[in-house]
Specification:
6 strands
């Protein structure tokens, strides 16, 4: 893999760190700062071949060069040197990403763990948060206009508004048709796309 620019890696790490409230769990609002739109998808999409293609497209459209995927549960201290992270650039292949996820085997490989993850780029127009134990992931967009601009990338993740997933006409995608009432209300209250979310 080509060596990535350290400045871009630091920026991607910083955006990931600033975008997530690490002590917060779904269905509460896990994102920090100002975000305009939230789209949900199954967490498995992060650990398959779709993810690299989606991240590549997101980075291309926003003019980013590196994204940082952090394992939050393996990162007790959010410092660049000690963070459990995988860095992705546009040269990263599916095979390299899969090997990184499997590193350590069934006992410690990220692919086999049920942890929390976050991902953002060095530009920071989007951030992904995932709770693998709940099979749920969500991507937040800084600007509402990016919903159309990032459409192809979002389609690769099968990312949709929470209202559509829980109230849509067709059969909702797993796991959103199995939400307990508390989760359903919490996700709609915190991630409904009828208003901007602002850092208080």
């Amino acid at each position: 893999m080509v060596t990535m620019d350290m400045g871009a890696r630091l920026a991607a790490f910083g955006n990931t760190k600033r975008s997530i409230s690490c002590d917060t769990l779904l269905p509460e609002l896990v994102f920090a700062g100002v975000w305009c739109r939230f789209l949900f998808f199954e967490s498995d999409r992060i650990f398959g071949n779709h993810f690299i293609g989606a991240v590549d497209e997101l980075m291309r459209l926003e003019g980013a060069s590196v994204s940082c995927l952090v394992n939050l549960d393996l990162t007790p201290v959010f410092a660049f040197e000690s963070t459990a992270a995988i860095y992705i650039d546009q040269a990263t292949t599916n095979e390299e990403y899969s090997a990184a996820l499997r590193s350590g085997g069934p006992q410690s490989g990220w692919l086999y763990r049920v942890d929390r993850y976050a991902c953002a780029s060095d530009v920071g127009a989007w951030c992904i948060y995932c709770e693998k134990s709940n099979d749920v992931a969500v991507i937040a967009l800084r600007n509402d206009a990016d919903y159309k601009r990032f459409r192809d990338a979002l389609d690769r993740l099968w990312a949709k508004p929470i209202e559509e997933l829980v109230d849509g006409g067709g059969a909702p995608l797993f796991p959103f048709d199995h939400l307990v009432p508390k989760w359903r209300k919490g996700l709609l209250d915190n991630y409904g796309n009828d208003q901007q979310r602002n850092d208080q």
